[in-house]
Amino acid sequence: MKYILSFSLVLLFSLGMSNSTFAQAAESLEVKVKGVGCSKDVANIKGNLEKLSGVSSCEVVKKGPTTTFAVSYNPEKIAVKKIYQIIEDTGDCLDPNDKPHRVQLK
User: Fold this and answer.
1) DSSP conformational letter for 12
2) Exposed site from 3, 37, 72, 73, fewest CB < 10 Å?
3) Quick check: pTM over 0.90?
4) Are 56 and 39 in contact (CB under 8 A)?
5) What would the pLDDT profile of 54-98 be if each residue is shown by its tens digit?
6) Cα separation of 38 and 54, whole Å?
7) CB within 8 Å of 4: residues ≥ 6 apart
8) Which residue from 30, 42, 61 is spatially nearest to 100, judged by alpha carbons?
9) Burial readout 49-69 (b: 16 or more C-beta within 10 A, e: otherwise)
């Protein structure tokens, strides 16, 4: 009986530690994007980022010709470089073949 109780406590402690490890895996990134022409461009970029596996959310912080997005992501599932690539591969609202969006690096 003692062994079952000890095993249960160890198992519960291990599960509790693994959950906090997952919670710590999320990071946030503020991305400034040049060339955003309209609200549809903002919505398209936001939607494309939120479709990505590893991105948990994308919020618009500031709209304008240079729009700022706050992206929450799991670095174990997606690289920042991939997030930048998706932004820059998002087509313009008037011409989807035109790729005017550029990530502004510091």
Assistant:
1) H
2) 3
3) no
4) no
5) 999 999 999 988 999 999 999 999 999 999 999 999 999 889 899
6) 27
7) none
8) 42
9) beebebbeebeeeeeeeebbb
Enumerate long-range contacts of 79-84, CB under 8 Å, 24 or more apart.
80/29, 82/52, 83/29, 83/31, 83/49, 83/52, 83/55, 84/31
Under the banding of pLDDT at 50, 70 and 90, the label for residue 38 is: very high
The ranges assigned to domains in the chain are 26-104
- What does DSSP assign to residue 89? H
Which residue in this structure is represented by tokens 């693994």?
Answer: 18
**pLDDT tens digits along 12-25:** 555 554 444 445 57
Dump the DSSP string for 19-47: HHHHHHT-EEEEEEEE---SHHHHHHHHH
Candidates 3.90.700.10, 3.30.70.100, 3.40.50.150, 3.10.310.10; CATH matching 26-104:
3.30.70.100
User: Smallest Cα–Cα separation from 66: which of 23, 26, 37?
Assistant: 37
